[in-house]
Specification:
With 338 residues, this protein is α/β, with parallel strands linked by helices. Helix content is 45%, strand content 15%. The chain has helices at 13-32, 37-48, 63-74, 89-93, 130-142, 177-180, 194-204, 218-229, 235-246, 257-262, 269-285, 293-304, 312-317, 321-331; strands at 53-56, 78-82, 94-100, 106-112, 119-123, 144-147, 150-153, 159-164, 185-188, 263-265, 309-310.
Length: 338
């Protein structure tokens, strides 16, 4: 007996309510953030999927404002960590501090760091030293931190948005592939258009400040995550997602020529999981309860661009991962041809 691809999600009042909440979150974010609908959708998909997002963009494009607004809309705790080369793991995780009681007794007491919050903005993550990035990796993957011999659970939900500046490379440490693979999405924030820039100036150069409503909380967010993960995905759509991932590997027969020429390592199985889960979240935010081919194609660039490792020839030719992903999407057919 074949194993079902997914458990169908019922379209009852509870599901409809959660879906309306998810859509309302996106609308509230759009009240404050101007001109980046794909970035807003990407951040929200990552949040609903229970993953983490890496945002690449120059300073001053509203990345911090986006995270603060998201915390306000969801009524969640928020922390910002500014990375520097001398930032130590204890600066973000916390440490054991020797405390003296009124009786004169002394004992160690754990003082939590800024990572103990629901939403974490890790600004310029590539400025942190490898040992600090390693500590952050444990928090992202395990949802707890280890101090000494004891593990401390992090709050639920737990969501990390890390940023990196693509322009300035002085004093930075490239993120290892293992850490990049832990980010569900890598999103790019481009410079706004003239129209959007005018709107940004209109909103930010007066005393007026936009207000957002609390449309959900941590408990309802977890409920949305569970319902959205159970969305139905047909076997042929799942197969399409798997074939997209296979086509990113240069040694797989039938992969496109740019992959064979410029790719050193293709996307991981975690990338395949990310594409499917993210596609479910996109369908949910679009008001549907089943995943389509368009959902897979929509989330593929953000889920794959940081997981494809290019070779030296690609660097010389100036080849970008997005071009590779675009070639893969054009190369892989929705249905297998006999």
């Amino acid at each position: 007996m074949p194993t079902p691809t997914a458990t169908p999600t019922s379209s009852g009042p509870a599901t409809e309510k959660l879906q309306a909440q998810a859509i309302a979150i996106e609308k509230e974010l759009a009240k404050v953030i101007v001109g980046y609908p794909e970035v807003l959708r990407g951040v929200l998909i990552t949040l609903l999927a229970g993953g983490h997002a890496l945002i690449e963009g120059a300073p001053g494009l509203g990345k911090t404002l986006l995270v603060r607004t998201l915390a306000d809309v969801l009524d969640l705790t928020y922390s910002r960590i500014q990375c520097t080369p001398d930032l130590m793991p204890s600066d973000i995780l916390g440490t054991n501090v020797l405390m003296a009681a009124e009786t004169g007794e002394r004992r160690f007491e754990f003082q939590s760091g800024p990572v103990f919050a629901n939403l974490i903005l890790v600004d310029e993550v590539n400025r942190a030293a490898p040992k600090t990035q390693s500590a952050l990796l444990e928090a992202m993957q395990e949802r707890n931190v280890t101090i000494g011999s004891r593990a401390y659970p992090l709050p639920r939900p737990f969501f990390v948005i890390a940023t990196q500046n693509p322009i300035e490379m002085t004093g930075t440490y490239p993120l290892p592939e293992a850490q990049l693979d832990r980010f569900l999405f890598k999103l790019k924030v481009e410079f706004p258009s003239a129209t959007n820039l005018t709107e940004i100036l209109t909103r930010t150069t007066t005393t007026w400040e936009p207000t957002v409503q609390h449309v959900a909380d941590g408990e309802s967010l977890i409920g949305i995550q569970h319902v959205a993960r159970d969305l139905l995905i047909a076997s042929h759509v799942m197969d399409y997602a798997a074939r997209l991932i296979m086509a990113t590997h240069p040694r797989i027969p039938g992969s496109p020529d740019p992959v064979k020429q410029y790719v050193r390592y293709g996307a991981s199985p975690r990338a395949a999981q990310g594409v499917v889960i993210a596609a479910k979240m996109n369908a949910f935010l679009s008001g549907r309860l089943n995943v389509s081919f368009d959902d897979i194609r929509y989330v593929a660039p953000a889920a794959l661009r940081h997981r494809i490792i290019l070779n030296v020839e690609a660097e010389v030719a100036g080849m970008e991962p997005d071009v590779i992903v675009d070639n893969v999407l054009k190369h892989v057919a929705e249905e297998l041809r006999n």
